[in-house]
Design brief:
about 260 residues, Rossmann fold, seven-stranded parallel sheet, 9 helices, 9 strands, about 55% helix
């Protein structure tokens, strides 16, 4: 039996990942702060795929709930083969208008939630020589203006993942960090912003995205099997990332002059 725990699995990408892994015969722990939705997802997976899928209440900012999750995984499954740190929130606003408490909120969930997941679950992954999969964002690699809190948190996830890929290599733990750009999700529903139009802009970008959460889940599954560390989805995203690495001046001008105009449409 292959065993995976996925945070934020009651909706969006987490739900798509849960469905994908269950369809491949994995037993899935649907870990989420949303109890009713999470229980529905777990029940759907059990009925459809017949694997041992269950819901576990988890606020990723709570160390006590992370400890409880690990205890449940040890008692129910005797271990863990993969962890997906997926739970996250959206936040937008200029540095002089976004409230510091909202900046902290983004860091606490999007970065420290991942840190806590790694801290508490890595011992299980060392035992199984399993997979650690952290969901960052293209925003962790490419930093658009008016998104400092989100960018900082996701860049931290990228840095953490690179660090752990080196640190955990002797233990046989494979580390992947997934960096998708926009795709349709419910991220806007909980988004905090100092700009009234930010939610509309984010929703428009999601609606116009060429990929779905299911596409991201499929590509994540495939690339993790291959042992890919940084998973960037789509030729356009890869081109911008290469531009930043190899043509930083052109990249900077592009971000200053072009990206803001595209978002403003």
């Amino acid at each position: 039996m292959k065993r995976i725990a996925i945070t934020g699995a009651a909706s969006g990408l987490g739900q798509a990942l849960a469905r994908k892994y269950a369809s491949e015969g994995w037993s899935v722990c649907v870990a989420d702060i949303q109890q009713e939705a999470g229980e529905q997802v777990a029940a759907e997976l059990r009925q459809r795929h017949g694997t041992d899928c269950f819901f576990q209440q988890l606020d990723v900012t709570s160390e006590d709930q992370w400890r409880e999750l690990v205890d449940v995984l040890q008692s129910r499954w005797l271990g863990l083969d993969a962890l997906v740190n997926n739970a996250g929130v959206g936040v937008s606003g200029s540095i002089d208008s976004l409230l510091p408490m909202d900046f902290q909120w983004a860091v606490d969930i999007n970065l420290m939630g991942v840190v806590k997941g790694c801290h508490f679950c890595v011992p299980l992954l060392k035992q199984s020589k399993g997979n650690l999969i952290n969901i960052a964002s293209l925003a962790g690699l490419i930093h658009l203006g008016n998104s400092s809190a989100y960018n900082v948190a996701k860049a931290g996830v990228v840095a953490l993942s690179e660090t752990l890929s080196h640190e955990l290599y002797p233990d046989g733990v494979s580390v992947s960090v997934v960096c998708p750009s926009s795709f349709p999700s419910k991220l806007v529903n909980s988004m905090r912003s100092s700009n009234d139009e930010a939610g509309e802009t984010a929703q428009r970008m999601m609606d116009q995205a060429p990929i779905s959460a299911e596409d991201v889940a499929q590509m994540t599954y495939d690339q993790v099997i291959k042992g890919t560390h940084v998973i960037i989805l789509g030729s356009r995203d890869k081109a911008i990332w290469r531009m930043k690495r190899y043509l930083p001046g052109i990249y900077s001008n592009f971000m200053k002059k072009t990206v803001h105009k595209l978002i403003a449409k």
